[in-house]
């Protein structure tokens, strides 16, 4: 269970998050949407303590993250960042193995148990055959799957993903959606920021809308994409239509 309680965050006196409060339950895919600059990525970075909120509290299973040692926190929450570029040559296996670091003592090497977890993460993301490849030689979709495999290897119960499907082709997008659905079946808590509103409408269990650093809406996808909400937040109109029992959104000015 993740509770965000009245979070305020600013950089150089620029307010980015203003009094954001929300509850995110396990076993659900929680979509976070909003215009560019609305605070979506900042919220994820505050949750995993890359950045610290100026006020408010973030609670994981009732524990304030400020009071959780960083190494322990890394076993509870993991972030798949928006930019997954690696600035040096490294194999896919070695990237995924970094997910085991929080579970190892200082200077301790990988144990047999760790290698088994890494191999299962590679298999779950369907990139086992790429494990010896330089990650910088992979396609964008394959590289994103490698970073998700690293997140799986942490065994964290709270998984944060920042635009994991941006600029990916349809196949890799659906690969990632399938993995998120597997996380949900494992009762993990999944927060995903997403620009593709049709994807969010179709696959997310809840939707939170950020606008100008504030929580504008939190609830069901059906309620999130009302014409009034979309007009007010994105300055466009929306209409819904169904095909084979699937709801699609059509945006227009």
Explained architecture:
With 253 residues, the protein is of the alpha/beta class. The chain has a single domain (2-252), classed as Rossmann fold, CATH 3.40.50.300. Helix content is 33%, strand content 30%. It has nine helices and twelve strands. The chain has helices at residues 40-47, 70-76, 92-97, 112-124, 140-153, 170-185, 197-203, 221-224, 227-234, and strands at 2-11, 14-24, 28-33, 55-60, 63-64, 77-80, 158-162, 189-193, 206-211, 214-219, 237-243, 246-252. The strands form three sheets. It has a six-stranded mixed sheet with strand order 6-7-8-3-9-10, sandwiched between helices. α6 (170-185) links the parallel β7 (158-162) and β8 (189-193). α4 packs antiparallel against α5. It is globular and about 55 Å long. The mean pLDDT is 94.
Poorly predicted runs are: none
Q: Architecture, according to CATH?
A: 3-Layer(aba) Sandwich
Number of helices: 9
Tell me the CATH topology.
Answer: Rossmann fold
Q: Can I get a quick summary?
A:
The protein is of the alpha/beta class and 253 residues long.
Question: What key phrases describe this protein's structure?
Answer:
253 residues, Rossmann fold, 6-stranded mixed β-sheet, 4-stranded antiparallel β-sheet, 9 helices, 12 strands, globular
Write the layout of secondary structure elements.
Layout: E1 2-11, E2 14-24, E3 28-33, H1 40-47, E4 55-60, E5 63-64, H2 70-76, E6 77-80, H3 92-97, H4 112-124, H5 140-153, E7 158-162, H6 170-185, E8 189-193, H7 197-203, E9 206-211, E10 214-219, H8 221-224, H9 227-234, E11 237-243, E12 246-252
Parallel strand pairs: 3-8, 3-9, 6-7, 7-8
Antiparallel strand pairs: 1-2, 1-4, 4-5, 9-10, 11-12
Helix pairs in contact: 4-5
